[in-house]
Amino acid sequence: MTSLGAVGLYIFPDKNNILLYFQYFFIIISILLFFIIVIKNGNKYFDNKFVSMILTFNLLLIGIVFITIYLKENNLLNKFQEYYLAYIIEAMVLSFFGYIAPKIPFNRYIGLRLPWTVVDESTWIYSHRVCRKITIPLLSVSTIMFLIAHLVFKNLHYMYNIGVGLILLYVFIPGISSLLYYKKLYKC
What we know:
77% of the residues lie in helices and 0% in strands. It is an all-alpha fold.
């Protein structure tokens, strides 16, 4: 949820301040919900190292969010800089998720939660390994495309589409591959 709230900065970069504040509120509430779930379930799913790693990343994300608020409200960013900052946040979130994905234990709270991944642990593990494998190639290709969209075409619309496409592919590829894995596993 936190990651989606941060990526929302990219999806809606030109919207009014009310939507912007709603996204920041969403990020902070999702972090609080994560810790309520951890406290409620104790160490049933998550060990202390995993929790502290997620907390550290989310605190960094909140810091970046508040810096972004300051920069946007004081008009210290032009449109290209705004899109670059949003893309960097998106890349950070996807990189972090790609790194921790295989380490996320089978649970119903955190991770790639699709109907077929939350009912079968082996499908869960498979889908999260796919997330890790596609992170670097997807980020590399999309970063090159993002730079070309800016440096060659100087087109914000292309930059926006590349960022949104990256998110969609990042969910679509492991989602479809894990569905095929699940169907093969259970011969559906």
